Amino acid sequence: MLQKLLIVVAILTSMVSFGQEVNFGVQGSYINMEGKSSNSLDNISSSGNSSGFYLGALVDFTLSDNFHLQPSVNYANADDVNFIIVPVLAQYYIQDSGFYLQAGPQGTFLLDNVSLEEIDLLNTFGLDLAFGAGYKITSNFFVEAKYSFELTNRFSKEVKDAADSEGIEVDSQFNAFSIGLGYKF
């Protein structure tokens, strides 16, 4: 985990050394998290939604007039479940419009321990694909909407192994929709 963080910091530091414009900022948003799970035994799928907020900090690297790279670190809370969300989004600004499209990978860290009889039910880390659109209101303020869907199975190895020993496939993901406002310094 620490090694991955150091690699990201090294990449971001090297990008600064190439002379791109770099802006720092803050953002806040309404977030709706959807938890989905399924099993093959009864061919059952279930889902539930939780609403909340996220707050975070961002770094915006201007790579050209139209292309930016924007990593951020955000704390999210949805119905008393806590997450750290770390997207690294490539942004394409539509010329002379203020609008931009964005997409990229996102790491989602579950901060709460979800266990039953000392068995962890869910993995702490999930890898998502995030995409969305935004609008630059002024040179500092922006508004954006994003959707992310999880690519990984959140059930822990213990849960998957126990289900597999019974011939059952289990799957779980967190997907999220957010809409919010940000400010770049």
Short description:
This protein has 185 residues and is mainly β.
Task: Outline the structure in words.
There is one protein chain. By secondary structure, the protein is mostly beta strands. It has two helices and ten strands; from the N terminus they run αβββββββββαβ. The chain has an eight-stranded antiparallel β-barrel with strand order 1-2-3-4-5-8-9-10. A hairpin with a 4-residue loop joins strand 2 and strand 3. The two termini are 30 Å apart.
pLDDT < 50 runs, ≥5 residues: none
Strand order of the largest sheet: 1-2-3-4-5-8-9-10
Helix and strand element order: HEEEEEEEEEHE
Main beta-sheet strand count, sense and barrel state:
8 strands, antiparallel, barrel
Structural class label:
mainly beta
Shape: elongated
State the distance separating the first and last CA atoms. 30 Å
Helical content class: 10-25%
Mean pLDDT: 89
Helix-strand layout with pairing:
Blueprint: H1 2-17, E1 21-39, E2 44-62, E3 67-78, E4 81-93, E5 99-110, E6 115-116, E7 119-120, E8 125-136, E9 141-150, H2 157-165, E10 170-184
Antiparallel strand pairs: 1-2, 1-10, 2-3, 3-4, 4-5, 5-8, 6-7, 8-9, 9-10
Keywords:
185 residues, mainly beta, eight-stranded antiparallel β-barrel, two-stranded antiparallel ribbon, 10 strands
